[in-house]
Amino acid sequence: RSGSMGGEPIEQARQAAIAAIRQLHPDDRVSVVSFANDARVDVPSTLVSDPQRLIRVVEDLRASGGTFLEGGWRSGAEQVAEHLDPGALNRIILLSDGQATHGVKDARVMPPIVAGLTAAGISTTAMGFGSQYNETLMLAIAEAGDGNYLHVEDAGLLPTIFEQELQGLTRTTGRRVSLGLEPNSKEGVEVAEVLTVLRTTTTGRLALPNLQDGQPVDVLVRLRVTRPLSAGALQGVMRARLAWDGPTGERGSRREQLDLPVLTGEAFSGLRLHPLVEEAEALQSIARHKRQAVAELDRGDRPAARASMARAADAGAPLFASSPAVADAVKETKVLETLFDTGDDRLARKRAMVQAYEASTSKKPRS
Question: Read out DSSP for 77-112?
């Protein structure tokens, strides 16, 4: 309810919260926290037995003052923690349209605070609305919070986006997901590069997004074999270990082994990349150049940032006609170039960051 939310934004935020309340079941719990110069618990955590009462409270929210982002998040966390249910999905949905003006503002300070709650079983989704919020901070909160990061430009889409977030929660089958890569070092196999940009856990595994029914997660890895192997033999190349917290809070894991035939150099040179691997490689290359452009923009090197954006578009050119996913990524990149050329660095940066994030977390469907 900060002053920058005045007018249509606060109205659409109200409608989004109302739409979310209407989707909940009587045995679900919800709380509503608003923040401006202070943080206020408008609806303490309660069962959704009387949704109309909750809706009336939301309808009375008004915009004024600054943006106490940290306080709003902490108050929401306290509400969820008071009724923490290991067998349920416990999530904070944080929506902000402005720069934090009170409390913690540093994107390096908030993540450890958020991560502490994540370890306790409470996740955080961060939604940045408009072009004035701190996308670096919001993305850091979402990643540390094991939730989603969303960039919203059209206030009219907020109700739909809230609905999609709740629907995603109902399809979630795994949280705090990690992937361990175990190359066969005895045969000289090693991980040369993980092309998908992912955080690592404290144990060195890759941190994956939540598992959801019907939503594959792509991780692109390049392996290197450092010693000769006998052609014709079936060789164990690596194992992958997936671990996750299930819907009722139990920790699950599964380990799979990759076995491949050893080919002669001549036979190998005649192979081509599988179309899905080719597509994934192009999408990750595009995302990598976008991240580079953001870093260069932050250093004040506009020519280098513009060149990185051009390289992002070029990376998808070979598959533009055959892969709808790559074609969409290239089109998005062209729009970024236009924004950059017209001086709208703020919006270009936000879009570049969320597009790179979506590529790393498989948030968009494959071709």
Answer: HHHHHHT--TTS-EEEEEEE-S---SS---TTTHHH
CB-CB neighbours of 37 under 10 Å? 15
Domain count, the chain: 3
As a whole-number percent, the residues of the chain with pLDDT over 90 amount to 67
Beta strand 234-245 pairing with 251-261 = antiparallel
Residue 346 confidence (pLDDT) above 80: yes
- DSSP at 37: S
Report field, pTM of the whole predicted structure over 0.85: yes
Say if residue 102's pLDDT is above 90. no
What does the alpha-carbon distance between residue 340 and residue 285 come to, in Å, rounded to a whole number?
A: 20
How far is Cα 219 from Cα 180, in angstroms, rounded to an integer? 11
CATH value at residue 164: 3.40.50.410
Whether 156 and 48 share a structural domain: yes
pLDDT digits (tens, 9 = 90+) for 111-147: 999 999 998 989 999 999 888 889 999 999 999 999 9
For all residues of the chain together, what is the average pLDDT? 90
99 shares a domain with 125: yes
Cα–Cα distance measured from residue 184 to residue 258, given in angstroms and rounded to the nearest whole number? 10
Same domain, residue pair 130 and 71: yes
Query: Does any domain span residue 242?
Result: yes
Structure tokens at 363: 């948030």
Q: Would you call 27 exposed, middle or buried from its count of C-beta atoms within 10 A (0-12, 13-18, 19+)?
A: exposed
Domain residues for 264?
174-269
Whether residue 337 has pLDDT greater than 70: yes
Type of residue numbered 233: A
Q: Which amino acid is at 366?
A: R
Please list, in sequence order, all residues whose beta carbon lies within 8 angstroms of the beta carbon of residue 109, skipping any fewer than 6 positions away: none
Q: What is the CATH number for 330?
A: 1.20.120
Same domain assignment for residues 106 and 155: yes
Q: How many Cβ atoms sit within 10 Å of the Cβ of residue 261?
A: 10
Q: What does the H/E/C string look like for 295-306? A: HHHHCCCHHHHH
